[in-house]
Amino acid sequence: MSQAIIELQHLAKSFGKQTVLKDINLTVNPGEIVGLIGPSGAGKSTVIKVTLGMEVTSGGSAEVFGTTMPNRELLGRIGYMAQTDALYDALTGRENLKFFGLMKGITKKVLNEQVDYVAKVVDLTSDLDKRVSGYSGGMMRRLSLAIALLGKPDLLILDEPTVGIDPALRRQIWAELGRIRDEGRSILITTHVMDEAELCGRVALLLDGKVMAFDAPAALKQQYQVKTIEEVFLKAEGVD
Amino acid sequence: MRTIGIMNRVLKELFRDKRTLALMFVAPILIMLLMSVIFNTNASTDVSVGTVAVSQKLNRQIADIKHVTVKTYDTKSAAKKALKAEKIDAIVKKNGNNYSLTYANTDSTKTATVKLAFKNALTATSINQLKSALTKSTKATVKLQAQLQASQKQQAATARAAGNATAAQPAASTMATKPTSQKTPKITNHYVYGDKDTGYFAKMLPILMGFFVFFFVFLISGMALLKERTSGTLDRLLATPVKRSSIVFGYMLSYGVLAVLQTILIVLVTVWLLGTEVVGNMVSVIVINLILALVALAFGILLSTFANSEFQMMQFIPLVVVPQIFFSGIIPLDSMAAWVKDISYIIPIKYAGDAVTDIIMRGTSIWHLGFDIGILLIFLVVLTVLNIVGLKRYRKV
């Protein structure tokens, strides 16, 4: 097997006295969608922040593309979408896309083409020249995703990308994520929607700063002897 | 490249926010116009002066001065009653050769006006007296000459004519010296004021200019970066390979552009609308204000990292902005205690104010203001470095 895109080993992270991550082992291989599920406060966003190099590890190692994070240059190869929409309200959708494209280091020639392409994927082509302040919540979410898709990054890190997006478009987005996977690019995605977790190649169940289980959805269901990922989730949490 | 991109984006956002833009450009003009009206009212303040036992001539002279009316009273107690009832603003009473002036002093500009008016009237009266004394003595001389001529023609009574002449001469000289001796003490009495109040707005102006630039750039840039942080766009920006310094420089460039526009506008308004004289080079004024704006920007960005909301950003105004006014030089620092004075050395507006004052009022060349500019640049460099390092809080590289 080729080299892993993301390789987290015995990762620990604490903020002051508060320990958020204790022992995280996680790999994302090329052409793989890895889902990260877990209750609120389990440390999903912290995993993402460490992977992006916004935070440094307190213990263990975090490598992306075989390089220890944090590393600024590598960020050009990562598409990131945060939980918040993080858009400039005063600008139009197109201006937002172009600005972030420029920041990613995409050349002008490729950029225009890219902007049109990602807008089509998230179905925003007709609204691209409207100001973001006039967008609906769903439209903002889609634009935010479009920004992450810009520049065909080798790795996509998506923090709950489908919140507030209607089912039809969600299916469309997952189809696009499937295409990205088939191109050999990798995706790390957090989600609360359990049927989305079923679509991931492997799912990591995060609880109390530890990865409780990390396997393909089918294997997880077998391991916990349940029918759905949702039940795996509940069982692992000890709710039952 | 990315720096320019960030600059373009910040400018685009700014120019679409019409209200904030209006605040930056219209508010300073409005405030300056108001201040110029308020602080330059000396010339048009209407005052009325009550006089007791003052000569008719002096009364007329005072009344002749614009915006001053005179009411005569027979006794001082009657005048005092009027003063208490705010019918008059001051009393002028003559005691022998001296004048005693009593001011209501509820309004310092009125006091100054009365002082000035009285001084002028007194001078005018003395000059008139001097004039009339001179004419009298000239007349006497003419008379004397005529008498002399007559005596020469008649060749008789020479001794009598000479006696007349000696009698006329001392009389004229006493008349001429008498008003002079009256005039001198009064002038020294009322000289001190007049000047101070007329120059007040002119003195404030260069500092005010800097203050507006500082205040608005500080507030708006701080808010802008705060918004980037709270909305998550800063995180997203930092999730791209952009350098931290590019973000800081991008902000500096865009707000630099804005500060230049603002300063040009403020300078033009003060010169064309308020008629203030700028002795030195206007470009130098803009350069200094530009540096100050960048300091304000760096300061705003730095402090915005300590604020979690727009409201918390506003809380820096009384803590950071208001003291700037106190130590900027608008209030004379000479009269303050030494330790208070020392605080002013860490206030950036003080240096900008000093430099711009020198340029506007004394015409100093910008090349001779190396000290002030140097200090401002030190502020700028230190704050900028702090900002670039400070962004590490949000991304570790």
From TrEMBL, chain A:
Q: Does Nucleus appear among the keywords?
A: no
User: Keyword Repeat on this protein?
Assistant: no
Superkingdom as given in the UniProt entry: Bacteria
Recorded hits in SUPFAM superfamilies, A to Z, give: P-loop containing nucleoside triphosphate hydrolases (SSF52540)
Q: Which residues form the ABC transporter domain?
A: 6-233
UniProtKB keywords:
ATP-binding, Nucleotide-binding
Show the Pfam families listed in the entry: ABC_tran (PF00005)
Q: Which GO terms describe its molecular function?
A: ATP binding
Matches recorded under InterPro entries: AAA+_ATPase, ABC_transporter-like_ATP-bd, ABC_transporter-like_CS, P-loop_NTPase
Q: Which CDD domains match?
A: ABC_subfamily_A
Query: PANTHER family in the record, alphabetically?
Result: ABC TRANSPORTER G FAMILY MEMBER 20 ISOFORM X1, ATP-BINDING CASSETTE, SUB-FAMILY H, MEMBER 1
Q: What is this protein called?
A: ABC transporter ATP-binding protein
Q: Which organism is it from?
A: Lactiplantibacillus nangangensis
Automatic annotation (TrEMBL), chain B:
**Which Pfam family is one of those matched by this entry?**
ABC2_membrane_3
Where are its TM segments located? 21-39, 204-226, 247-275, 281-304, 316-333, 366-389
- InterPro entries in the record: ABC-2_transporter_component, ABC2_TM, ABC2_TM_bact-type
**Which superkingdom?**
Bacteria
Domain ABC transmembrane type-2: where? 161-394
PANTHER family named among the record's database cross-references: MEMBRANE COMPONENT OF ABC TRANSPORTER YHHJ-RELATED, TRANSPORT PERMEASE PROTEIN
Question: What is the protein name for this chain?
Answer: ABC transporter permease
Subcellular localization(s) per the UniProt record: Cell membrane
- Give the membrane topology: Multi-pass membrane protein
Q: Which UniProt keywords apply?
A: Cell membrane, Membrane, Transmembrane, Transmembrane helix, Transport
- Family of the protein in this entry: Belongs to the ABC-2 integral membrane protein family.
Record organism: Lactiplantibacillus nangangensis
Task: Show which residues constitute the signal peptide.
Answer: none
